[in-house]
Amino acid sequence: MAGTRSDTRERILARAAALFAERGYHGVSTDLLGAAVGISGPGLYKHFPTKEALLGELLVSVSERLLTGGRERAARQAPPEDVLADLVDFHVAFALDDADHIVIQERDWRHLREQDQRAVRQVQRAYVGVWTSVLAPLRPDLDAEQARAAVQAVFGLMNSTPHSLGRLPRAAMAALLRDLALAALTAS
User: Fold this and answer.
1) What is the C-alpha to C-alpha distance for residues 102 and 55, in angstroms, rounded to an integer?
2) How far apart are CA 59 and CA 47, in angstroms?
3) Which of 31, 11, 33 is nearest to 22 (CA)?
4) I want to staple 112 with a disulfide (CB 3.0 to 4.6 A). Which of 48, 85, 116, 134 is the partner?
5) 23-55 confidence digits (pLDDT tens)
6) 36: helix, coil or strand?
7) Which CATH architecture describes the domain 1-48?
8) Residue 133, exposed/middle/buried by CB under 10 A (0-12, 13-18, 19+)?
9) Among candidates 32, 22, 113, which has minimal Cα distance to 12?
10) DSSP code of 171?
11) What are phi and psi of 164, to 5 degrees?
């Protein structure tokens, strides 16, 4: 039955992401969330000790997933231009396919427990570091702080997608974001 518990936990996380993005953290009761996954509201506490812990897991786990994917791409034996393009494609796909997580972090960050805020920030700093290490040989004109700032600015560009979803077909939006991000990162 451990697989069933794990599956339920994953269903809760997925449904919570959609509901939190749609209604906001305070707009989602445990009863509503439980009903959305076919369990009672109090049944959520078998999987997460608190609603705040659920929010924390959502944002920590998505940050960890980005870091893992970034590290995998950065470890490729390829020219730095290709690795940077792969990182951009990876993050653009995240921004388009997981826009709920972007909305939640932007809007509901203040509801995270302090320990989860620290964990998310630590993982996000490491993710920026992965990108910065890939960008450095391509932009020797930038010092380390400038490179970090450039990477974070491009994240802002890519993570703005929840505000523009539906304006273009997905493939066209992905291509546009890719071109804009690469141009911004490689312009001297």
Assistant:
1) 13
2) 16
3) 33
4) 116
5) 999 999 999 999 999 999 888 999 999 999 999
6) helix
7) Orthogonal Bundle (1.10)
8) middle
9) 32
10) H
11) -130, 5
Tell which residue, 100, 120, 129, 138, has the closest CA to residue 24: 100
**Are the folds of 1-48 and 51-186 the same?**
no
Per-residue confidence (pLDDT) for residue 165, from 0 to 100: 74
Report the phi/psi class of residue 38: left, alpha or beta, with left for phi > 0 and alpha for psi in -120 to 50: left
Asked whether the beta carbons of 134 and 182 are under 8 A apart, the reply is no
Yes or no: say if 99 and 161 are a contact pair by the CB < 8 Å rule.
yes
pTM of the model: 0.92
Distance CA 74, CA 91 (A): 13
Sign of the CA dihedral 34, 40, 41, 42? negative
In terms of C-beta density within 10 A (0-12 exposed, 13-18 middle, 19 or more buried), how is residue 27 classed? exposed
**CATH entry 2.70.20.10 includes domain 51-186:** no
Q: With CA atoms as reference, report the closest residue to 132 among 87, 79, 77.
A: 87
Q: Taking the mean position of all CA atoms in its chain, how far away is CA 114?
A: 19
Domain range list for the chain: 1-48, 51-186
Q: Per the structure block, which two tokens stand in for 62?
A: 């998505």
Residue indicated by tokens 């998310």: 120
